[in-house]
Amino acid sequence: MLKMKILLTMILSISLTGIGVIFADEPEFTIWVPDEMLPNEIYHGVLISESKKSANVDASIVTNNEEVIEIISKAIKIDKENQHGIFEFKTKGVGDATIFAIQGDQLLEREIKVVHSAKLPYALDLILPSEVINIQSNKDEQTGYVFLLNNFENPVLAVEPTLISLTSNGEITLPQNSIMIEPGKHYEKFTFQIRGEGGEITATAANLKPDDEEVSSSQTEKIELKLAVAPDPIPTDSSGELYYWLERNGKPFLAPHDLRIKLSIDDTTKLSFESTVRGTTILTANADVDAILSADDTEVITRTEVQLQQDAKRSVFLDKGVHYGKIKVWTTADSSGMSISGLAESIDSDVEEKISIAEVINVESESSNSDVTTKTKVFAFPNPAYDFVDIIISSESGNGPVIEPDDEEVTVFTDSKLITESPKSKILMDENYAIITARVVDLGDAEIFAERNDAESDRIEIEVEEKFVNDPKLEIQPLPALYGIEQELFLITSSHDIITTDPTSQNEGTLLSVTTKPYFEFESIAENESIITVRGTIENLSEDSEESPEIFVASNAETVTEKLEVHNSNRKTIITMAPETVYPDELFPFVTHIGDLEKNPIQKEELKFSSNGYLEINEGLGWLNGTEEIKVVFFDENSVPESTQIEIKGGEKNKSKSPTSSENSVPTRTIFTYDVEVENGEGSGQFPEGEEITISAEPIIDDFIIIKKQLVGWENLPNTDSSFIIEIEEDIKTRPIYQYDFTLLLLTVAPAIGIVSVVTVKKQLKKKTNKKIKNFDDDVDIDELFD
Q1: What are phi and psi of 366, to 5 degrees?
Q2: Rounded to whole angstroms, how far apart are CA atoms 629 and 623?
Q3: 2-19: buried (b, 16+ CB within 10 Å) or exposed (e) per residue?
Q4: Can you tell me the distance from the alpha carbon of 710 to that of 759, in angstroms, rounded to the nearest whole number?
Q5: Hey, CA dihedral for 149, 150, 155, 156, is it positive or negative?
Q6: Which of 9, 168, 324, 619 is most buried by a 10 A CB count?
Q7: How far is the CA of 118 from the CAs of 39, 115, 204, 602, 604, in angstroms?
Q8: Which element (helix H / strand E) includes 124?
Q9: What is d(CA 721, CA 379) in angstroms, rounded to the nearest whole number?
């Protein structure tokens, strides 16, 4: 039993081994096709048998996307002596597809991509100056651009007139609904206007991917009018200072132009701009006369309604570049609350940023007394301070503000951020306060206190800040640029300010400086108050440099930088695609494309090459012979040579024998030459295909003394000039054709004599025609000859 088991095990092992050998004899295949191709071209793929075959092999080729590729060779046969089976297909549309090869129970597949040529437009690129338009200049026309891009997002020149349709929604107006990009250009400009909050613009064109952009108006920081009084509360029977200044974004704001500020007090029976009301009781038409007349120690005056209205209003001015101002107000004997309002307006209505802002503050008055001063109070305005600040020192007692019976000296103390011309001053007799002005010398929180005799004040702090500088919110908008072409290169925009690069400009706004690294010449053009276009030509930069030009735009508030991408469409690269491993003496696909500098394909093209082995390439198919690895260098004008290598499998079959067409071989790579024979003229010789040569002959020749012959054409050629350039595409045999010119004879012989012009030519048979021309010896009329 054990022997039987051993025997069965041995038989099973041998059987399994035999099955493995049978499987090993079955051919294994790989499929190769180019992975990236151009539309509307013929390409080849190859099915390679990686092992020996005992018989011919048939295979089927199919695809999953016939909108992208069309299989021409749907069935292929590989002879048992060969390893390669070539199949052919045509690319149609742009997109992805898979090519399948089915052989027996084997299913092979290869994914491919068909892409647009890098020299053809594929999409539109709509570019607006910024997503946010300066609200100060949105009444102006804004500039937009539409660029042509290829499938690889690089700018590309139009090959035919391209009509661009423009549409908008929201609060955007387009003066024109279409623009045209002419051949040889890669962009066109258009204008638009934005109102209110903005909207969206869309650009479309036939067979091109559309683009759209949103745009809105900016919201600048609000300018504020600030009002304050000191002392606070204001003593009755006294005066106070009403301060007014401007702030923006919480910082001191200098008036951008001359302003008028209209001030108004709501109750002039308590507070007035008129000094005669100080300490009085005002009798009006509606007042309680008995109560007023019964008041002790109070001067009573009468004021009409018109007078009261006049007392309540004053206009003051804040000149351009000035931060603050003040006006004195007087209190009556009545202590109570009131309000002061202010309205600041631009005097000139034609200024860029017209100002109209209002402010209202509540003011309290407090009954004054003549007690002994026991306390000193300190106020400082404006707060925050910019260049100067007024420090107000007032006298106080336990019963409220004190009206000093005599002049009293006061001293102010500040930290190092403020400097006073003199720290001492006097509160005059019958007054409650004195003012000392300090100059700002540093930024930050400044500390202030004062003392009068032994009465020291509390310490207060005020902010000392830089003036508000309108942050222009600068933005650089690079435009798609082509090397060596004069064009708009980039835009400089501000969503919050007026900008200029001209130091002599009279316009208010921010002065900018523009520099580039490396340097190139450019011109700055003001599109409107918030957009500057920079135009120039990028041509003096290193073409091989991987560094993009840098742009620097500086204002007094910030510096912004951006890189400018420049696409060089003149320089080319070589793209090669072939199987990594092939068998000798058999056809295989060899694809060569011309591409841009980013290796994006432009066109399919036969290229010059050099190799260390025997290699032939023609019409996308290669053939080689050798035993190991072959290296190939492809080269072309204005491009960097490309090196590739192919491994040869299976050894050398027949080095001396090139495959014939019946063996599915590739024709020998040949440079065709043609013979040119010019009789009685110049230009004869042997020339390669495509070369341009000059053919010429004497325009006039003498036959008799008074009779000449004039060249009127060429045999077998359509030219009539005595000298012309022609591109060689076939063998040429030609001679000049002359016609008699009797001009001199007519001038010497009677006009009545008839003139017959006869030309004889030697008969030559034209190529590709059955029409015969008579021999030179026959008499032929010249009209018949040209028929």
Answers
A1: -135, 140
A2: 14
A3: eeeeeeeeeeeeeeeeee
A4: 11
A5: negative
A6: 324
A7: 12, 9, 20, 5, 12
A8: strand 123-127
A9: 102
The 3-class secondary structure across 666-726, one letter per residue, is CCCCCCCEEEEEECCCECCEEEECCCEEEEECCCEEECCCCCEEEEEEECCECCCCCEEEE
C-alpha span between 444 and 386 (Å, rounded): 11
- List the beta strands (DSSP E) in 531-584: 531-536, 550-554, 559-563, 566-567, 573-577, 581-582
Neighbours of 547 (CB within 10 A): 10
pLDDT of 472 > 70? The answer is: no
Q: Mean of the pLDDT values across residues 368-388? A: 93
Encode burial over 233-259: b for 16+ CB neighbours within 10 A, e otherwise.
Answer: bbbbbbbbbbbbbbbbeebbbbbbbeb
Distance between CA atoms of residues 539 and 562, nearest Å = 19
112 vs 32, 43, 59, 117, CA distance in Å?
A: 10, 12, 20, 15
What residues contact residue 369 under an 8 Å CB cut-off, 6+ apart? 397, 399, 400, 401, 402, 403
6 φ, ψ (degrees, to nearest 5): -60, -40
Beta carbons within 10 angstroms of residue 191's beta carbon: 16
Name residues whose C-beta falls within 8 Å of residue 705's C-beta, 6 or more positions apart in sequence.
Answer: none
DSSP 369: B
d(CA 775, CA 764): 8
State both tokens at 781: 């009329």
Say how many C-beta atoms besides its own lie within 10 A of residue 489's C-beta. 23
Rounded CA separation 137/376 (Å): 51
Question: Could you give the CA distance from residue 117 to residue 168 in angstroms, rounded to a whole number?
Answer: 31
Q: What's the token pair of residue 467? A: 């003036």
CA nearest neighbour of 586 among 34, 46, 42: 46
Segment 309-367, tens digit of pLDDT: 899 999 999 999 999 999 999 999 877 889 999 999 999 877 767 888 999 999 999 99
Whole-model pTM above 0.70? no
Token pair of 510, please? 């921010």
